[in-house]
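To the wet lab folks,

You asked to see what we're planning to order before we commit. Fair enough. Below is the target structure as tokens, and below that is the sequence we designed to fit it. If anything looks off to you, flag it before the synthesis order goes out.
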């Protein structure tokens, strides 16, 4: 596994800046009472849809939920916060993959993942899953699944 500690941080800042920039025109438009029929309006609505916003916290050795749920075929936003004292990841495994032990993990099992965040880091990333079903989420770092870092992502029709 490639662990790049710098990339998540800079990517997260870029996304946050993009979100802030997307929100600014909508806020300004509200103040002036103008129409908000531009592209940024849909981004603004997206941020207000609760089931498309996942707030994921990681500590040693667990996530803050045993299950998350998102709609199929729609982009959702994951805010991943490492509240622990060592690096953690958030990896959604491909449908049908169910790991009980970290020793069975292979990188090709990953549908997508948020790579290692160091302690105290946060990142915002957007994903979309087309196929409804149950997906296992793990922290692939050595020993972390075995210690309990596994949850479920339900993708509902
Ligand atoms: Cu971990």
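Sequence we intend to order:
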């Amino acid at each position: 596994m490639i662990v790049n500690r710098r990339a998540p941080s800079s990517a997260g800042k870029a996304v946050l800046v993009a979100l802030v920039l997307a929100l600014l025109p909508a806020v300004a438009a509200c103040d002036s009472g103008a129409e908000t029929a531009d592209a940024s309006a849909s981004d603004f609505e997206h941020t207000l849809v609760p089931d498309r916003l996942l707030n994921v916290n990681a500590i040693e050795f667990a996530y803050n939920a045993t299950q998350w749920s998102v709609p199929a075929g729609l982009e959702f936003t994951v805010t991943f916060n490492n509240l622990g004292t060592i690096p953690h990841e958030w990896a959604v495994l491909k449908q049908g993959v169910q790991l009980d032990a970290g020793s069975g993990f292979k990188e090709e099992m990953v549908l997508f993942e948020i790579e290692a965040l160091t302690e105290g880091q946060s990142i915002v990333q957007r994903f979309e899953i087309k196929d409804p079903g149950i997906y296992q989420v793990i922290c692939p770092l050595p020993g972390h699944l075995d210690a309990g870092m596994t949850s479920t992502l339900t993708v509902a029709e």
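Structural context that might help your review: The longest strand covers residues 110-117. Residues 58, 88, 139, 141, 144, 149 surround copper (II) ion (CB under 6 Å).

Thanks,
Computational group
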